[in-house]
Amino acid sequence: MGQLMDDVRRAVAGRFPVKLIHRTGGIIPTSLEVSQKAKAILEGLQ
Questions:
Q1: Helix, strand counts (H, E) of the chain
Q2: pTM for the full predicted model
Q3: What would the pLDDT profile of 22-45 be if each residue is shown by its tens digit?
């Protein structure tokens, strides 16, 4: 739900894009989902 977005943005201090992987119900994204999302972001797809 984005509760840590501000903390993460401050931590990376603009060096990296910060995007949300939307999940609810306590379901944690898998490492594969995170790496796929990161790759898509860095390739400019999202």
A1: 2, 0
A2: 0.58
A3: 777 878 889 998 899 888 888 886
